[in-house]
Amino acid sequence: MSDLTALTIADIRSGLTARDFSARELTEAYLEAMDGARQLNAYVTETPDRARAMADESDRRIQRGVARVLEGVPIGVKDLFCTEGVDTQAGSRVLAGFRPRYESTVTANLWADGGVMLGKLNLDEFAMGSSNENSCHGPVISPWRSSGSNDQLVPGGSSGGSAAAVAARLCAAAIGTDTGGSLRQPAAFTGTVGIKPTYGRCSRWGIVAYASSLDQAGPITATVRDAAIMLKSMASVDPRDSTSVDLPVPDYEAALDGGVRGLRIGIPGQYRVDGMPAAIEDMWEQGKDWLRQAGAEIEDISLPHTRYALPAYYIVAPAEASSNLARYDGVRYGLRVADDDIISMYEATRSAGFGAEVKRRVLIGTYVLSAGYYDAYYLRAQKVRALIKRDFDTVFEAGIDAILTPVTPTAAFAAGSMATASPVEMYLNDVFTITANMAGLPGIAVPATLTEDGLPLGLQLLARPFDEAMLFRTARTIEDAAGHFSPGRWW
Amino acid sequence: MPPEKRLWYRAPILENGSGLREMSVDRETVKRVAHLARIAVSDDEAEALKADLNKILGFVDQLIEVDVSDVEPMASAGASQTKLRDDVVDDGDKAEAVLANAPDRRDGFFAVPKVVE
After folding, report:
1. Contact in structure between A215 and A179 (CB atoms under 8 Å)
2. Cβ atoms of A207 and A82 closer than 8 Å
3. Residues of B in Cβ contact (< 8 Å) with A271
4. Most CB atoms closer than 10 Å: which of A16, A45, A87, B55?
5. What value does the mean pLDDT take over residues A135-155?
6. A170 contacts: CB under 8 Å, gap ≥ 6
7. In this predicted complex, what is the ipTM?
8. A80: helix, coil or strand?
9. Looking at the complex, does the CB of residue B110 fall below 8 Å from at least one CB of chain A?
10. 99-118 of A, contacting B, C-beta below 8 A
11. What part of A 302-361 touches B (C-beta under 8 Å)?
12. What is the pTM assigned to this prediction?
C-alpha cells in the first residue's frame, strides 16, 4: 500500500476486511500526513494517543470478526462538537481551556461505530464566517492554489478546517456544521462533498450552539458514497435534543445506485442573475445536461422569495446567536477577565473573549430583539422565513424531486482579500446555500468542475425534508459524470 | 479578480437595501446595545461597529418590500409540536462535572465578584 491516505471510506472498509493493512497502520499514515501539513492550520488540537488507542481497538475487533460499520476510519472533528476530555474552543478566546465532561451525540455515534478520532479542526469563531479567517487560532489555508500562482486561498467557512483536511487527505472524512452554508460552501471551494441534512436529522446535543433553529451537523468527504456512509452513522433519534426527529435512519448507501431516470429536477430562475460568471453558468448547464442524459426531466421552477433569504437570515441567526452566546459570562467555563463588580466582569470578559464578527452579530441580534424593534425586524424576518419555506413546499407538492443550483457564486477567493470589505459582502457568499437552512431542507454540495484557473466549483442539490436518499442518488449521478478533483501537494 | 466580477449579484441586492435607511444607528445606540449585550466597547470600537451595523441593517431593511400580511411567523424548521418526555428524574448528581471548568469555584459553588452590598 503506497498511500493509505488516498483511500476512501469504502476502500478502507474493504482493505481492512481483506487485511491489506491494519487500522493502526492507517492511523499512523494520517498522523504523519497531519504532521507534514501544519502550515495549512487545519487542526487546532491533535489527539494522536487517543487515535492510536482507538485504532488498536479496531484491529482487535477486526481480528475477532466483530468489526463495526466505521471500524478504523480516521475522522477529524470540527472544534464545535464537545469531545469529552479534549479541548473544545469553537475558535473563540472566550472558551480558552474548556474541556467538556461529556461527548456530543454525533461524535459519540461515530466512536460507537468504530471511527478513530484524529483531532479537532479549525473553524470560524462560533461557526460565524465564510472564509475561516475568523478564528482565534488563525486562518485555515486552502490546499488548493490557482494554476501558476503561490497565493494563498481561503478554504471557505465556517467548516474550513474540515474541508481543507479532507481535500489535503489529513483525515478520511470530517464532520462539521451548517447554519447558512458552512458545510456546502467550503466543500465547493475544496472539491469535496458536503451534505447538510434536514433540520432534526442529526442531534444538536453537545454542539456549541450558534443559531439553534438553523444549525445542523453533517459530513465532508471525498466521495458521495463516503458522505452516505458517514451520515448513516452521525444521524440518530436523540431524546436529549427535542428537535431530533423520531424517524428511523435509512440506509443511504443503498440509495446510491438509484439513478435519476424519470426524476423531475427543478431549476430555479431566481438563482440566475445577469452577469453571473461564465464558469458558474457553464457548470450549471453541464449539470443539467448530465442529469438529462441520465434520464431526468429538467424543468424551470420559481422560488420567488429567494432574494429575501439572506437578509432574513441576518436577522434570525444573529438574534438566536445573541441569546445562545449569553452563556459566555466568565462564570461557568472558559475565559474570565476579573473586575470589581459582576457587570464589569461580564463586559470585560466578553469584550476580550469575542472576535469582531461575533461582536457584530451579537449586537445586531440584541438590537433586533430589543424593545421597539422586535416586530419590525425579528417577527417580520420569521414571516419572510415562512414564505421562503412555502416557495419550496409549492414546487415539491407540484412533483419536483430535487432542485439543482450552483453552491457558490464564485470559486475560492484569496486569503485576506475581504479584510477591508463590508461584512455584508462576505455574507453574500452564502446566497445560494442559505435558503436550505431557512426552510430546514437537506442540501448537498458535489464537485462539478474546475475553473480556468484550476479551482473547484460545486453543484448543489436540494430535496424534500428527510429525503437525503434523493440527494445521494442525484449527487452520485453528477459525481459519475464529473469525476473527482484533488489539489496538487505543495505543503 | 475585480470586485464586480467577484460579486456579480452584489449590486442588485445592495442597491435595493441601502436606499431605505441612512445611518440611523448612532454611536450612543451602539453603546447602549453593547451594554445590553454585556460587551464593553471603546469609543473607537463603537464608531467602527456603528458603520458595520448600519451596513447590515441597511441590507436587511429590504425585507420591508415583502408583503407579510396574513403570514404566520416561522420560529423553527422543525416540528411545530415540541416533544415531551416522561416527567421523571433521569440525570443529575454531577456537581463535580458541572464545576470542573469554572474559572473560580469555592466550596462547591461558582464564585463571582460581590453582587449585593
Report:
1. yes
2. yes
3. none
4. A16
5. 97
6. A5, A30, A33, A34, A37, A40, A42, A43, A76, A118, A164
7. 0.94
8. coil
9. yes
10. 99-102
11. 305, 307-308, 310-312, 314-315, 322, 326, 329-336, 338-348, 350-351, 354, 359-360
12. 0.96
A487 DSSP 8-state letter: P
Least confident of A4-13, A184-193, A371-380: A371-380
pLDDT digits (tens, 9 = 90+) for A425-467: 899 889 999 999 999 999 999 999 999 999 999 999 999 999 9
How big is the A-B interface in CB pairs under 8 Å?
203
Give the model confidence (pLDDT) of A54-82 as tens digits.
Answer: 999 999 999 999 999 999 999 999 999 99
Query: With left for phi above 0 and alpha for psi between -120 and 50, is residue A65 left, alpha or beta?
Result: left
Single out the catalytic residue among A22, A58, A131, A182: A182
Catalytic site includes residue A383: no
From A186's Cα to the closest Cα of chain B, the distance in A is: 17
Q: Grid coordinates standing for B109?
A: 459553588
Where do we find the cell 413546499?
A393
- Report the alpha-carbon distance of residue A441 to residue A389 in Å, rounded: 9
Among residues A78, A120, A196, A232, the one annotated as catalytic is A78
- Name the residue with higher pLDDT: B116 or A353: A353
* Whether residue A182 lies in the annotated active site: yes
Cα torsion through A121, A336, A320, A460, rounded to 10: -10
Among residues A216, A217, A165, A215, the alpha carbon closest in space to that of A192 is found at A165
Q: Based on the number of CB atoms within 10 Å of its own CB, is B115 exposed (0-12), middle (13-18) or buried (19 or more)?
A: exposed
Which single residue is written with the C-alpha cell 449539470? A287
Please check whether residue B68 touches A, CB under 8 A. Answer: yes
Euclidean distance between the first and final Cα of chain B, in Å? Answer: 61
Q: How far apart are CA A479 and CA A476, in angstroms?
A: 5
State whether B53 and A335 contact (CB < 8 Å): no
Integer Cα distance of A460 and A321 in angstroms: 26
Residue B75, pLDDT > 90, answer no
List the catalytic residue out of A104, A135, A158, A236: A158
Residues of B in contact with A331 (CB under 8 A): 102-103, 110, 112
With CA atoms as reference, the chain B residue closest to A101 would be B97
| Cell numbers standing for residue A323 | 441569546
Would you give the distance in Å from CA A129 to the centre of its chain? Answer: 12
Kindly indicate the confidence band of residue B24, based on its pLDDT and cuts at 50, 70 and 90. Answer: confident
When pLDDT is averaged across residues A117-142 and rounded to a whole number, the result is: 98
Other Cβ atoms closer than 10 A to A254: 13
Q: Which chain B residue has the Cα nearest residue A146?
A: B1
Q: Which of B39, B49, B80, B81 to mutate to test the interface with A (most CBs of A within 10 A)?
A: B39
Contact B20/A at CB under 8 A? no
Beta-bridge mates of residue A460: A405, A445
